[in-house]
Each structure stands twice: as C-alpha cells, then as structure tokens.
C-alpha cells in the first residue's frame, strides 16, 4: 500500500467534515482494504466510521427494524430482535462471507459499495427499505442505480437502514464457493405493499427487481406461480456461469425462497 492519513470520526458531522478532497470513508474495510493493497485506489485520507455511536446498534419499533450503518454482519445475524422480526434478514447476514468478514464488515459499507453480487442490497430492495444517509433518506428503489453506483453524493455516507417488517420473507443464495458472494441470490418478501422479488449476483447492472415474478406471486403466492426463467439479456457471463445459467438460477432460487416463506 502507500501512505495516507487516518482519522477516526466521533460523529456523523465529524465524518462528513473530514471527507473533502480525496478522503474516503472506511467502515469494515472488507472491500476497501483489498482495493488499497492492489493499488486500485489512492485516497489521501481514510475516515473511520466505526467509532460513531449514532451509527451503531439495532432498534425494533412497531413494524420496522432500524440498523445503524456501522453495525456488523455478525451483530445483525446474532440479534434476537432481528431474528424475531425479520428472520430472513438475520439468516442473510449469517451467510455473508466467513466469520472474519462477518465480524468486521458492516451493513452501511455493503450498501454504500453496492457490489453487484452482495447480499444486503437484495434485502434492501426486496423489503422496500429506507436508506438513511448523511444528507437525508432515500428509498431503496431509488438508491441502487447500477453496478457499484448509488444515489450517494460526494462526501455522503450511509448512516443506517430501516426495514419494514414483512408478513413473510426468505433469502436464497447460490454461493460462489471461492468468494462466498452470491452467484445468484434472491430475496422475496410479502407485505402490505405486495410482493417484492430482488435479485443479486446476476445482472451487469447490479441488484434488480424481477417484476414479472412479483406480478405472478401477487396473484398467487406459491412456488408453482413463479414464471419461467427471465431473459438472459444483460445478465453476467463469466467462468462461473453463463447468462443463461444465471437466468435459470433466478427462477430456481425464487421458487425456493417462496416455498421457504409460505
């Protein structure tokens, strides 16, 4: 790596003030540190968000679960409150990476990075979450804008995420064994606003909603109602699977998710 300044922020305001120029925020660092080691990034300063008390912890209130942006995957997975309110979200967090990653990686870092194969973006989109940022709230439908692209502006950070509690939900992940990312992951939920089906790991544009499946499941919430595989156009093709293979997996994982949440 190379020399850079380091600052541990004590508040959201402190962090935002420190993020001018080529400074970059760091939370768990599970993506950023490998990027720095490979010299693919060269920030002049790292601003550590892990000491910000207002970005820590989990609050269940009424029909919503709010998770601070600096809360680790392990904390979400092991939270009795999350397990009780949205078991699918706790299970998703429990299957991210390995124990070392889960004890360091944070929900805010995952959401802000928006890796096209990450798990949390599918939970946000699949549950219709609200992303809290240092500049205000953004609906998940508007937040994720493409591969590694979000609605975050320069110098903004994800301070937390609020998930509505669904009537039923499940996440199914076909794991790419080398990276533990999703070759294809599907988050399905049924709530007051209808059915949502969010897919990660499959598209060149990142996480997306499979609207044909949502419409079919809205009329009949059953694994038998899941449509045939979507078009392979725009899906990822690599050494792990062709676009057609990923399209097939989308339908398979959706059926499994619906069956598990019925």
What would you say this structure looks like, in words?
With about 260 residues, the protein is of the alpha+beta class. The protein folds into two domains: about 5-165, 2-Layer Sandwich (Uridine Diphospho-n-acetylenolpyruvylglucosamine Reductase, domain 3), CATH 3.30.465.10; about 170-260, Enolase-like, domain 1 (2-Layer Sandwich). It is built from eleven helices and 14 strands. The chain has helices at about 10-20, 30-35, 75-80, 80-85, 85-95, 100-105, 105-115, 120-125, 140-145, 210-220, 245-260; strands spanning about 5-10, 25, 45-50, 60, 65-70, 130-135, 135-140, 145, 150, 160-165, 170-175, 180-190, 195-200, 210. A five-stranded antiparallel β-sheet has the order 4-5-10-6-7. Strands 11-12-13-14 form a four-stranded antiparallel β-sheet, with helices on both faces. β11 (about 170-175) and β12 (about 180-190) form a beta hairpin. The longest helix is centred in the last third of the chain and has 19 residues, at about 245-260. It is globular and about 55 Å long.
């Amino acid at each position: 790596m190379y020399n850079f300044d380091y600052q541990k922020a004590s508040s959201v305001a402190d962090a935002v003030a420190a993020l001018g120029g080529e400074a970059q925020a760091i939370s768990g660092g599970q993506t950023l540190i490998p990027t720095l080691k490979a010299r693919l990034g060269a920030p002049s300063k790292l601003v550590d968000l892990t000491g910000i008390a207002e970005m820590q912890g989990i609050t269940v209130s009424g029909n919503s679960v709010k998770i601070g942006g600096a809360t680790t995957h392990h904390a979400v997975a092991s939270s009795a409150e999350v397990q009780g309110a949205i078991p699918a979200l706790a299970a998703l967090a429990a299957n991210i990476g390995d124990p070392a990653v889960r004890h360091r990686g944070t929900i805010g870092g995952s959401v802000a990075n928006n890796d096209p194969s990450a798990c949390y973006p599918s939970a946000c989109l699949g549950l219709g979450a609200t992303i809290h940022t240092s500049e205000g709230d953004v609906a998940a439908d508007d937040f994720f804008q493409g591969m590694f692209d979000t609605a975050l502006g320069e110098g903004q950070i994800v301070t937390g995420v609020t998930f509505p509690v669904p009537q039923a939900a499940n996440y199914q992940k076909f794991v790419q064994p080398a990276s533990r990312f999703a070759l294809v992951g599907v988050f399905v939920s049924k709530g007051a606003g209808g059915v949502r089906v969010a897919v990660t790991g499959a598209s060149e544009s990142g996480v997306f909603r499979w609207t044909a499946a949502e419409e079919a499941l809205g009329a009949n919430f059953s694994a038998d109602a899941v449509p045939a595989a979507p078009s392979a156009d725009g899906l990822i093709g690599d050494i792990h699977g062709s676009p057609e293979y990923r399209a097939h997996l989308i339908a398979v994982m959706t059926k499994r998710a619906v069956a598990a949440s019925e």
